[in-house]
Specification:
The complex is a heterodimer.
Chain A (H helix, E strand, L loop, with lengths): L2 H23 L14 H6 L2 H13 L2 H33 L1 H16 L6 H8 L3 H25 L3 H9 L4 H19 L1 H18 L5 H10 L3 H29 L6 H4 L3
Helix pairs in contact in A: 3-12, 4-5, 4-7, 4-9, 4-10, 4-11, 6-7, 7-9, 7-10, 10-11, 10-12, 11-12
Chain B lengths: L4 E10 L8 E11 L4 E5 L6 H9 L6 E6 L2 E2 L7 E4 L11 H5 L1 H5 L4 H14 L15 H13 L5 E5 L7 H17 L3 E6 L2 H7 L2 E5 L7 E6 L8 H4 L3 H30 L1
Classes of the chains: A mainly alpha, B alpha/beta.
Chain lengths: 268, 270
């Protein structure tokens, strides 16, 4: 199929889903067949037209920007802090077999622990502002980056390493010119997952207790049984996640220019 | 005058994997390579040729014996040697130019000067204009040229080469061999060239050393190659002396090759 045809069909699927959703939920349009009350479907599933209206008013009166900005800040901070910590400890444990032997069980245990249960503790420690959400995001991002960097250090090609040694690299230079580039390439290959996790941490944190952010909007709407606003929040979050993902793809393209792209290996 | 590389009863024993017996790859090897001499080391596969090269490079400490570099016992990495590996050794995150200048950078050379010398060396190996390509964007032959330039830019006195062209197709390989000979004759360095290809060994070298099959590899024959230089590797194969030399060396190798083959087969069968 041609690219444009694919796009057309993709758009058509979205329209179809929305139309079906609207038809099935709008009170009085279709005779009720699950519930007795014709308003029940709209109560549980919302109505797409009203949902879009809510989203539209949020953008029109500008309230949403403040919340999006907060969520973006939390996501970026969680990612940056988690990545730096993961890179540092990943390099350290990757290079020091003593440290990795000692700390291995603890790292495994911490990674196995469901991090979301830490959210209340972070609220006590860091308050209801952005930092408790950042902390939650960091715990999620950290392990992804850590394991990738650790693997990256372990899998540095011994030939590349020996070659650099023969070219006169000192231990420091090996770290800077061989281990670090190799580890960061693994870090970047996990970029999509780790940015996604930072986002999850931010939204879940907001949902559990905050005064701003898109997660907070959803939680407020839910408290008022405003199902349309809940769906509007979800829609905006999804769009936001797609924009983030696009930004990551662009960053990846710039940073991993030296890596063979799929298309170069297998020309279409 | 002291030899460029002198192995004095080198033995390398490796600890066993999974409770087997320790493995002695190289046993009691005494061998010397003169300054400016091109020596090829041939032997059956898996006979410890690379082990010997790693010892000369200082990447591997022998279990016993001494390595002397221009008369001085080697401790640590051999700073007077350049090493060209069989496998891909370029840093994939550096472009061709940055790979060529890596050694200069490690030695703290001036950036601009390193750059211009790098460009010069890229041109010398026939890659001017390819400096900004990354290794994956280059062909196998081109990557070997970059490796060659990367090694030679540091002007090492000893070149250690571990089957450097074995992954190339025959035409590219002969081109590279001729280029190597040309670069070498312009500035004669001592070369230890490991190969399993006898024809390659004879056409390049001043002397061919034959190793026995592993374990406990040791030299079993040395053959001076008196073919006139400069040589063209494709043409020298047709020279009358070549066939006779090939015959003689092959004769001494044959038993070892069969032994090596039988061992590998037994190992697979076991």
């Amino acid at each position: 199929m041609k690219r444009s045809t694919v796009r057309l069909w993709q758009a058509l699927i979205a329209v179809l889903v929305f139309v079906a959703w609207q038809v099935l939920t709008q009170p009085g349009l279709v005779p009720p067949f699950v519930w007795d009350n014709p308003d029940r479907a709209a109560f549980f599933f919302g109505e797409p037209v009203k949902m879009l209206k809510v989203a539209w008013t949020w953008f029109a009166d500008g309230t949403i920007y403040k919340h999006l900005w907060v969520t973006l800040q939390e996501t970026v901070l969680a990612f940056v802090i988690g990545a730096v910590l993961g890179l540092g400890t990943g390099l350290w444990l990757g290079l020091s077999s003593t440290a990795s032997a000692l700390l291995d069980p603890y790292i495994t245990a911490m990674n196995a622990m469901p991090r979301v249960v830490l959210a209340p503790i972070f609220m006590v420690w860091f308050g209801l502002g952005i930092w408790s959400k950042v902390a939650l995001g960091v715990t999620l991002v950290y392990f992804i980056v850590f394991f990738n960097v650790y693997q990256g250090v372990k899998e540095v090609s011994p030939v590349v390493l020996n070659n650099s040694v023969m070219l006169g690299a000192s231990r420091r230079q090996l770290l800077r010119h061989v281990y670090l580039p190799s580890a960061t390439s693994w870090l970047f290959s996990s970029l999509h997952t780790s940015v996604g996790m930072a986002f999850v941490g931010a939204v879940v944190g907001e949902y559990l207790g905050s005064a701003s952010g898109v997660g907070y909007l959803i939680q407020q709407a839910e408290g008022a049984f405003d199902i349309n606003a809940v769906f509007a929040g979800i829609l905006i979050l999804t769009a936001f996640a797609l924009v983030l993902d696009y930004a990551v793809t662009q960053a990846e393209r710039r940073l991993l220019r030296w890596r063979p792209a799929q298309s170069e290996v297998e020309p279409l | 005058m002291a030899a460029a590389v002198g192995f004095e009863s080198i033995t390398c024993t490796f600890a066993a994997r999974e409770g087997g017996r320790p493995y002695t790859a190289v046993k009691d090897v005494t061998l010397s390579i003169a300054e400016g001499e091109f020596v090829s080391v041939v032997g059956p596969t898996g006979c410890g040729k690379s082990t010997l090269l790693n010892v000369a490079a200082g990447l591997l400490r022998p279990s016993s014996g001494t390595t002397r570099i221009f008369g001085e016992p080697l401790a640590g990495i051999n700073r007077r040697a350049g090493y060209m590996f069989q496998a891909e050794a370029l840093m994939p995150w550096r472009n061709a130019l940055a790979n060529v200048t890596a050694g200069l950078e490690f030695r703290g050379a001036d950036r601009a000067e390193a750059r211009s010398r790098g460009e010069e060396w890229l041109a010398r190996v026939g890659l001017s204009g390819f400096g900004d390509r990354y290794p994956h964007q280059l062909s196998g032959g081109m990557r070997k040229r970059v490796s060659l330039a990367q090694m030679l830019i540091l002007d090492p006195q000893i070149l250690l080469m571990d089957e450097p062209f074995s992954a190339l197709d025959i035409q590219t390989r002969q081109l590279m061999e001729n280029e190597l000979l040309e670069l070498w004759s312009a500035n004669r360095k001592s070369v230890v060239f490991i190969t399993h290809d006898l024809e390659e060994a004879i056409s390049l070298s001043d002397r061919v050393v034959v190793l026995s099959a592993g374990p406990e590899t040791h030299p079993i024959g040395e053959f001076p190659i008196g073919l006139p230089r400069p040589r063209d590797v494709a043409e020298v194969r047709l020279a009358p002396g070549f066939i006779a030399l090939h015959d003689r060396i092959w004769h001494s190798m044959k038993a070892e090759v069969l032994k090596g083959y039988a061992q590998t087969r037994n190992r697979v069968a076991a």
